[in-house]
Please model this.
Amino acid sequence: MTTDPFEGMPKIHYEGPDSKNPLAYRYYDADAEILGKSMAEHLRLAVCYWHTFCWDGTDTFGSGTFARPWQFAPVTQAEAEQKLAAAMGFVERLGVPFFCFHDTDVMAAAETAQDHAANFAAIVDRIEEKMAATGLQLLWGTANLFSHPRYIAGAATNPDPDVFAFAAFQVRHCLEATHRLNGHNYVLWGGREGYDTLLNSDLGRELDQMGRFLAMVVEHKHRIGFPGTILIEPKPHEPTKHQYDHDVATVYGFLKRYGLENEIKVNIEVNHATLAGHSFEHEVATAAALGILGSIDANRGDPQNGWDTDQFPNNAAELTLAMYHILKAGGLTTGGFNFDAKLRRQSIDAEDLFHAHIGGIDTLARALRNAAAIIEDGRLDAAAKERYVKWDGAEGRAIMDAGATLAGVADRVTAENLAPAPVSGRQERLENLVNRFV
Ligand code: XLS
Ligand code: NI
Ligand code: NI
Model:
């Protein structure tokens, strides 16, 4: 069996917007400079292991449809190595710098803790060699704390402390491996950290368990000297009825409560934002305002379907405002854009993997170009600033001053006969302005 299932597939290059070649970028020009940084530095693109190299097309109603020889859960070390070769061959051809994985995506199957540690360590050695040979980098690692039946009732929030311990075991190994592989971040998505019914769940106790777990992860990060960022990935539900890391604002409240707001940031996934009833740009703007913007899982939902369809992004207009907020926040630092996205089940050709990623990358690149043009134009930012101009003046500063009192502020209303007049929010005018750039 060949170790390179993409033999014959070309390396993907930028050919510009007029190119008719479906296997070329039309907007993503890695070295092109946008607002003082290359597109590659802005986007920090990553391919994910789980959807792109593990999921075989299985859905609730049917079995796998992808006859890709390397696309199955690896049972043996040889299979794990075959998958690794396929994965790195693909990422290299796309010309993106990063990849992401769950521990269980990359390693040979394991039932016991001993086997888990041994099998994971064996493949991490190979990953390290591959990274050295190819120059590819790890955007983030994460432990799968939701697929194995032991996590049926959650990991850290499980009623059984032995399951908490098992989760600690997996995260310890995965965090240490991520450190060894110079990963830029470590992600925690609380897949089953929530409940199916409140009839059997002690919500307060489970939140305390989760707070404890995260504090331990942070303590271990410092103990081993991992310089990357710890990220929580919010999602409102699925597979649970309710997930505790519901959305960015909920995560921030949780971090505050457990004193972790300066230690942990968020990995925002587009489809999770929309499942929570928010726009993606709302989640980005909220994280930026709270100082916890970390990284992005790029994908999209289906407006008619209420689940995490994880499709590849294909609408640059829709992503432009989110990109605008990311740029205004100073960009992603240790984070990047990871394609947590999967093909549709009928996209059975290996070549379909290329089209999906090329389309997603070009969509992000186009949104980045649009957002940069809006910033260079300056009118949108000026309009928003103009609305608050009085807050920078004497009246606003007097209110924000720590010594200001309700009575003192109130007295000014009568003393100065205040009669503030409403001002237009000019929403349609601003919408038209944005539409000039998308
Ligand atoms: C699932 C999540 C998951 C995380 C990593 O909905 O998006 O894929 O990104 O565990
Ligand atoms: Ni995700
Ligand atoms: Ni998701």
Summary: Residues 215 and 280 are 28 Å apart (CA to CA). Residues 269, 271-272, 308, 310, 340 surround nickel (II) ion (ligand 3) (CB under 6 Å). The chain has a mean pLDDT of 96.
